[in-house]
Amino acid sequence: MRRYFDPSYYRIILFDQLVTDYSEFENLSGGARIVMDNAGVHGIEVASVVKSALAAAGMNALDYELVTYGVFFDDGTATYSNVLKAFRQLELRGEQDAIINMSASAEFINAENGRLILEDFIGPMLTQRNLLLITSVGNDGLSTASVLPACADVPNQLSVAGSMNCFATPWTGTNTNDRLFSIVAEADEVLTFDGTNYHLSSGTSFAAPLVTAVAAQVHSQMASFDAGLIQQQILSSADIVEPFISTVKDGRVINATVATSTSSPLLQSPTGNTVPVFGSTGAAVEVKVKIGPNPFVDNLQLSSYNLPEQRLNLQLYNASGVLVTEWQFNSQQTGTWNLSTDIPAGSYFIRVTGDQGFQQQLHLIKQ
């Protein structure tokens, strides 16, 4: 039952495999009664990713409602009409103020016609009903503009591509589009639950629900945000990561910590509008920070070019996302610093942020 008295309570709708009577997923990790049609488990696995991510953030079943609309058949396939019927059913049921996770995509021969139908039918519905649509981009390893709905130009949509090796590189199977796809989340060996057993599953189907979980967390922190502001909060707080520049627009990678922070840039904007994402527009793209050598053995050097004077914070993370150490410096227009390091060999990330909004993330190898 939807709790209209609690503005932080949010409804998450899965467009996925059929669940009898659109039943709510409850206590999934505890092995609750879930009736799926025949052997299809994709919907349960997607739901388990959402629930696990929200549980890790301290949210439970009292904080949100998780339901499903049947779109896929038992074998995991769907028709274009199924998708449109699901949106029509959503409209007839009066759904509003919700997140829709659609871990599905299709390559259309005549993508332009399909795109126009989606844009004309779904676009106004998302806006009028305050719905945020989060879609996966597909697992064909293609650079494509004909995957739908991810390539549809509709408001309130986040299309999610996949990464691997802890956000270091694009996942080998992810589709790519540096103009139309929105953001990257981890798609390689994501922990899922099929109703009986736990598995490590890979695919953009499991990257999308990670973003869905972040969207629900944003709403729980900022209940006054509508779907468009939740979308912009996630995009404006993303990390800009060089290996993903050709995967999604601006190389944006999800940053759940910043997105759910009440001190986020979007909240600090005096107009309440989105702030520019670093690397997307303006002079910020001229700012460069280089750290090397890469691979490195002991010391690192950091060089900045055309960087306005500000305090720089450098955070070194291991491949599991654990903060190893950090440094702080006062920058100059140009400068080089020797960074003494004493860490085990392996793969690392350095996140560079400045108190004037500068941010950059780099992948390093320690030998």
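^ that was protein a. below is b, sequence first then the tokens
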Amino acid sequence: MKSIFKISIIILIIAGLSIVGYLAWIYLVAPRITPSEETALPGEAQPAIPNVPVPLTANKVFDYWINKKTKEVHYLDENGQIYKITKEGEQVLSSQNIAGLNHIKPNGDGTLVLVGFGYPATPTFAIFNTLTKSWQAMPANTTSAAWSPSAPTGGPRLAYLRNGRLYLLTLADQKSKEIIKIDQKDLELEWVLPDVVYLKERPSIQLASSIWSININTKEVRSLAKPESGLLVRWFGDSKTGIKFTNSLSKENLLQIVNLDNQPLGSVGLITLPSKCAFNALGTALYCAATKTEISGVSLPDDYLKRAVYFQDDIYQLSLIDLGGQLIGLPTKILDTESVKIVIDADQLEVNSKQLLFINRYDKKLYSLAL
């Protein structure tokens, strides 16, 4: 009888301890477990993590470019020093200071970069080789220059304007060949197809500008774009597709996708500029930064190019569908800056693999947004 009584007491004690342990778990331990600490069940969605742009540089950036072979990013800071961004950090390639920076143009694979400086008093051009870390001067009195879009067997070539004439320069032997005499001044040069260069007047809302094409083999000159107010075109990839801005269109239709003959393929549907857009490598998607604030009273592109106005941008993706020569795409917002509490004016957009790169004009640093 006594043994039965002892067993009953032991069972009651064990039961009591179990109840106490359970209550301690419910009231003390369980509340400390947050949803982020719980393990998701198979197939259960994890909480979304906001996609926020990440700064890639500590320095203020004048402009940047991408080595197409290695995908490494290079940039000029505001003093003209050249850096390469690596996994270990930023590596200085050239410590030389350059005054009066105006623009840069990388060659096709990004191993060479043409730098325009000395503006506005004495425009000067020089080439920097990122592999040898050396400089090479362009002919004196050059006013504009552009790289060949292809890689000929003779090595890299440039077209350049000098003293009212168009020349071709082969870097390997440093020989120049005159192509044609050009009377008009203050032109910008772009080499878009293997045998065709474009001459562009500087864009302004105050004066209509044009674009002409010159065949460097036949020397045929033809009008590519008639005079239009604020005309800007940025060519991408194989130069068969471009983004065109003009004030000649309606306010809701300032930006168009065009082919190499300047024929419209579709409208972007955003109020922005060509430098604030970039295609992906396949040409199936277009990314654009566009202002979310009212820009009434702003003269585009002049005020933006002179930094008289700054935008507050969100970033959009347009998935492009080719419908009988017409590219159709509706903008989808991929970065809502208000929701992540940042302010950007994104310029010089480039797609580098699964990253969208841009310069934020507010702090002048280079940023990356994951795609």
